[in-house]
Amino acid sequence: MVTTRRGKAGKPVVSYNGYGAIETVAGKVDVLSADEHRSFLRDNGMSIAASDDGYNTDWQKEIMRDQGISHSHNLSLIGGTEVTRYNASINYLSNQGIVKTSNYDRLMARIGVDQDAFEGRVRIGLALSGSMIKADHVSNTIFTYAARLLPDS
Length: 153
Prior knowledge:
3 helices, 5 strands, about 150 residues
């Protein structure tokens, strides 16, 4: 049987739990720089594109942050009497992804009340919860394109 956190008889207890984290890129695909690409083309008798304007773009660097920051915060309240117990909590999670346009934010809230009736023979409970999520995901193909695009484009 799975149970969720319930209220307890006694003075109200407020608690906080939180954490923070930093994410970094573990490794990048080793690709040629624009200068290395131009040298390779010249050394192998190939022509440089007429549209080459001298750019030197690291596409992996263009799409990724140096680090993503995540943090979570949880605030809860528990208390009650011998016959009425209550609990409430609110949680906020923010995850800034490694890709510049990726983010995830979630806000969750929960409240519960338990009431004993008929000398403890019946327990009536009410629980309400809700959440809001804002997620900006990116396709994994973005990494393929970042590794394939020419650095001089």
